[in-house]
Structures are given as C-alpha cells and as structure tokens.
Amino acid sequence: MQYHIVPVTHFHQNCSIIWCEITHEAVLVDPGGESDKLRLEIDKLEVHVNKILLTHGHIDHVGGAMELQQYYSIPIIGPNKADRSLLDNLFVQCSILNVEIPSSDVTAIVPDVWLEDGDVVRVGCEVFNTLHCPGHSPGHVVYWNKMSKFVVMGDVLFKGSIGRTDLPGGNITTLLHSIKTKLLPLGDDVQFLPGHGKMSTIGHERANNVFIV
Fold first, then answer.
1. Residue 67 sits in which domain range?
2. Rounded Cα–Cα distance for residues 161 and 103 (Å)
3. Inter-residue contact 147 to 178 (CB < 8 Å)
4. 8, 64, 157, 180: which has the fewest C-beta neighbours closer than 10 Å?
C-alpha cells in the first residue's frame, strides 16, 4: 500500500490518495476541495482512481466530491447513512462554519454506497475494513488496513486531541466510546492518518492523549 497526502482548503484537511503498488488502482479519500490541485497530484502519481471514499459528511471533507466524481466517472463510497442529513444540507454547514461558497457550487451529495460497520472496501489488492465510529458525526467511518497496520481516521482521533463534538450530530460520550471500543483495541503499533494535522499511532495516543488517558 502507498499513500500521498494532499492538504486542501483553509481547513488544511488531509485528503489522501491511496493506491495498490501491484495494480496501481487508487482511491481518493475525503476530497474536501481544490479539485484542480487534486487532479494534478493524481496525474503526477500515474495511478488510476476508481472510487472516492468519504469518512463523514462535513463540508471540509466532501466539498470536492461531486466535481471529482463527475470528472472521473467513479462512485462515491461511504460514509454511514447516519450522515445523510449532513450531506443533504451542505449549504447549512457552510453557514455554520462561515464558509463562503456560492450556493450553486454546494450540491447535496448522495453516495453510491452507504457503508456499515464491518464492510470491506478493496483498493486493488489492498483490503480496508470499515469501522463505524460515531461521535464527531453520527455516520463517521474509518478505514482500517490490517495488513499495513494503517487507519484512515478522519476526524475521530488526532495527535494529542479528538474530534470536535459541537457541530450538529456531535456527542462527546459517543465519540469517546468509539475511540475506546473500536480504535484502541487495534493495537499500539497501528499508524493513523487524521483528517487534519500530523500522523500518529494508537500507542502514542493511548499513552499521551489527555482526552483518553
């Protein structure tokens, strides 16, 4: 498995391009915006993107999804259907977060496939298991590659912090339960890519993250 991180928009959201070294099939995870920039990066890598994965329905993670879906003619996969209301009301999110996007550019997103806990997503020869981890949003999922000991985390857990829970659908108790029951058991040597900021490991956060120690 290989990956390339492309921070996008003023949210500095970690969009990632993940691909199989054998087949060069790739996925685009959480394209939050700056679609032209993402297309250029994909071209440089010479990989074949065949699906878009979403961890959750917040505008900073999905802002470029529809444009890129149409450009590449590929499906949008995820998140869990509990985030349907977020994806149906992107313009409301823009108002809450003070994001200035013309209303004509904010289109409701309807994924081609909603994901459930335990669903498998394949990227060439790579296998990602879906873990439903609500709390930051009701339908948040993370993508867990057991062989590579790697998690695409979205906004559940960060280096030294956790996802915010003051947005619609957020719940601190639910978020901590997701972290403690779904993520910590994965193992201390598991590396994860958060939705914002630097990468970390489960072990580092178990020992140092003040929200879960």
1. 2-208
2. 33
3. no
4. 180
Which residues have a Cβ under 8 Å from the Cβ of 44 and sit 6 or more positions away? Answer: none
pTM for the predicted model, two decimal places = 0.95
Lowest-pLDDT range of 111-115, 126-130, 167-171: 167-171
Domain membership of residue 91 (yes or no) is: yes
Q: How far apart are the first and last CA of the chain?
A: 31
Lowest mean pLDDT of 4-18, 98-112, 132-146, 154-168, name the range: 98-112
Question: What residues contact 116, with CB distance under 8 A and at least 6 apart?
Answer: 80, 130, 132
Computed from CA positions of residues 79, 80, 81, 82, in that sequence, does the dihedral angle turn out positive or negative? Answer: negative
In this structure, is residue 25 part of a structural domain? yes
Tokens of 32: 């939050």
Are the C-beta atoms of residues 9 and 63 closer than 8 Å to each other?
A: yes
Beta bridge partners of residue 201, listed in sequence order: 191
Residue 213: inside a domain, yes or no? no
